[in-house]
Amino acid sequence: MQTRNIGDVQVGAIGLGGMPMSIEGRPDESRSIAAIHAALDAGVTLIDTADAYHIHADEVGHNESLIARALASYGGDTSEVLVATKGGHLRPGDGSWTVDGSPEHIRQAADASLKRLGVDVIGLYQFHRPDPTVPYEDSVGAVRDLLDAGKIRMAGISNANPEQIRTANEILGGRLVSVQNQFSPAFRSSEPELDLCAEMGIAFLPWAPLGGISRAGELGSRFAPFAEVAQEHGVSPQQVCLAWLLAKAPVVIPIPGSSRPETARDSAEAVDLKLSADELARLDAN
């Protein structure tokens, strides 16, 4: 698989988002682990998770623990796999999402993630979502402290605007390596953040790149040009979407969610799909 950089680490150009394996509608564990193994077999070396990917209040970190078990049971080499997790977003267990960007919570969340992942150092730790009740500098400062303490190898942020990207990079002393924002054919308002990341050489990780868990399968019917280009190449509209994103900038690494081996393999194959300038223009104009 083609590679791209997150900081000084090379990863496959397509990652794997673990959220569908752990929230509402999740499959049984065996299928999720099979999907992770299929992604690894296909050359995926970036797996994205978060402590908030769970359903019930008493199972915080469900997805982190699941990924740890999948990696431990994989028959191949996992030494090059980068697990990226996040803290600062919470699910009380009633289906809602809340935030806690306090430095104390960030520190506690990172320590808990370390234990669930079964590692001495978290490969990439990302502040999940800004907390309007906490100064952004304080939240990112807690991530900086984790970096300085050696508890995390690299630091990133998620759901950030351009000003927050610049602020985070300054607080981290130029060590911000990734920004994870929503970006898909249906959600393109993060274009300024993508452009800024390309300018700064920071990895941009589009979450929900296929439109989200409930809409990914409808991508071709919702956006005709993606279906048309897919038919011309004999591939899925989802592959076309991921190839379109990869063509946006060398810093883009999509992290499509998956809970089935076949969709994990299909997503990974997008790195081999080459789209012409005309095709990209058609998709951009959609």
Automatic annotation (TrEMBL):
Keywords: Oxidoreductase. Residues 14-285 form the NADP-dependent oxidoreductase domain. InterPro entries: Aldo-Keto_reductase, NAD(P)_OxRdtase_dom_sf, NADP_OxRdtase_dom. One of its GO terms (cellular component) is cytoplasm. It holds the Pfam family Aldo_ket_red. GO terms for molecular function: oxidoreductase activity. SUPFAM superfamilies: NAD(P)-linked oxidoreductase. PANTHER family: AFLATOXIN B1 ALDEHYDE REDUCTASE, ALDO-KETO REDUCTASE YAKC [NADP(+)]. This is Oxidoreductase. It comes from Planotetraspora mira.
